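Structure first, sequence second, as always.
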């Protein structure tokens, strides 16, 4: 019970299913803040917590199995959601959730060395992805992948972000020899050893759950990484807006982070074994071939879907045409992209018919785009009942409690008004009342005496 309750806190802190919905919303801040939250300080705390207390969790087979299931659902679900997002930072946010799922998956099979290895590797390439996204947003004037896919030559506007983000996406997709390949393969290798009975750090069922989910997520990760790259840098349409050259400080840090994104994984497990419990984190042949093969398959399938949808799609913002059907489509599109005026249709929310994610996900796309409606579920289970209870309390306070309070104040006020009427200031009235009262008392006294 202690381990399971601790896991509930970890799920909220490190954005694991089902308490992960806050993380995509947290990407609304500036990209340096997003890079700090998603790559280093905040979401890593839960993973570090479990790593430090791993013996507590290993004492409970139920806790390790629950951790494995939580990691598996987090990995696969977030990858599907990332494949359907239009906001470039929201794609990266769901990507963070998935990579955290890899880390908790490594912990679920009892290998904290692999978890910390992937935590450090992910910190480098995810910070690079968010900062490169900031450069792209600065150049394009929008977060929307649908808008960027309608801009040609965007990669020429941001050459530094183009090359460094390509490195980071390859690391994210675990393509060798980039760092993500080595750290992700260490997770796959740990899961494979537990699943096949070569390691007793966790139940065998946990190993199979993590291994299957990790391989599926490797396929989906490469697909949404390829989708992001294609929609951002291979857009077709009007010339991308020119907002001037990015400052040196925005570009220099990209190259600084590109170095560990490329080289950290290959050097860490050889040069820094003490950082990872002294374990051998070298990639295993079976999981390396499977993981890399699935990653390549995911990228190739997404590229084929993009080629297919691009050939069929009309390259005009749907909202712009709806707003000005009589105008020249090319001119409307150019002005809409250059100025982002809502009068020409908000292209940040116009559906992109060339989005390969729509073809790959099919009817699942609309559900994945909303994070599988978890926010709606929380609203129905928690938010609305709490608001209804608050309305009831407010009604009782206003209509019941305040009625008594108002009555307590009104009664003395009425009595005071009645007494005030008797104070006329006329001496004759006072004498008459005194005599009348005397007569009444005298009559009462006679009646009482007679009755006695």
């Amino acid at each position: 019970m202690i381990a399971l309750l601790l896991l509930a806190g970890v799920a909220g802190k490190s954005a694991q299913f089902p308490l992960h919905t806050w993380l995509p919303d947290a990407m609304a801040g500036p990209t340096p803040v997003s890079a700090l939250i998603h790559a280093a300080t905040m979401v890593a705390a839960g993973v570090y917590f479990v790593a430090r207390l791993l013996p507590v969790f290993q004492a409970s087979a139920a806790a390790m199995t629950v951790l494995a299931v939580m990691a598996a659902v987090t990995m696969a679900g977030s990858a599907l959601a990332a494949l359907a997002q239009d906001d470039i930072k929201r794609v990266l946010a769901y990507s963070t959730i998935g990579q955290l799922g890899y880390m908790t998956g490594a912990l679920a099979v009892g290998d904290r060395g692999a978890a910390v290895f992937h935590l450090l590797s992910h910190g480098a390439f995810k910070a690079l992805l968010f900062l490169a996204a900031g450069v792209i947003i600065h150049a394009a004037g929008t977060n929307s992948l649908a808008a960027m896919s309608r801009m040609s030559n965007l990669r020429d506007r941001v050459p530094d972000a183009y090359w460094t983000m390509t490195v980071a996406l390859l690391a994210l997709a675990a393509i060798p020899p980039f760092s993500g390949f080595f750290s992700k393969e260490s997770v796959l290798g740990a899961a494979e050893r537990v699943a096949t009975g070569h390691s007793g750090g966790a139940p065998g069922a946990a190993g199979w759950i993590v291994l299957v989910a990790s391989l599926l997520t490797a396929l989906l990760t490469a697909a949404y990484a390829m989708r992001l790259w294609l929609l951002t840098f291979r857009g077709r349409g009007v010339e991308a807006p020119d907002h001037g050259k990015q400052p040196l400080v925005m570009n220099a840090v990209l190259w600084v982070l590109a170095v560990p994104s490329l080289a950290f994984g290959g050097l860490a497990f050889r040069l820094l074994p003490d950082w990872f419990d002294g374990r051998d984190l070298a990639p295993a042949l079976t999981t390396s071939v499977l993981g890399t093969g699935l990653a390549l398959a995911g990228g190739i399938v997404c590229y084929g879907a993009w080629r297919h949808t691009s050939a069929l799609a009309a390259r005009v913002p749907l909202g712009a045409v709806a707003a000005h059907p009589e105008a020249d489509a090319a001119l409307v599109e150019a002005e809409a992209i250059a100025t982002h005026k809502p009068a020409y249709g908000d292209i940040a929310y116009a559906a992109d018919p060339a989005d390969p994610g729509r073809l790959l996900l099919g009817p699942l796309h609309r559900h994945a785009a909303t994070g599988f409606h978890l926010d709606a579920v929380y609203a129905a289970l928690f938010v609305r009942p709490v608001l209804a209870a608050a309305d009831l309390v407010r009604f009782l306070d206003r209509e019941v409690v305040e009625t008594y309070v108002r009555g307590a104040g009104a009664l003395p006020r009425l009595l005071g008004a009645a007494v005030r009427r008797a104070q006329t200031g006329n001496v004759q009235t006072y004498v008459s009342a005194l005599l009348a009262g005397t007569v009444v008392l005298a009559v009462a006294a006679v009646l009482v005496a007679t009755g006695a």
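Margin note: Residues 374-422 form the longest helix (49 residues).
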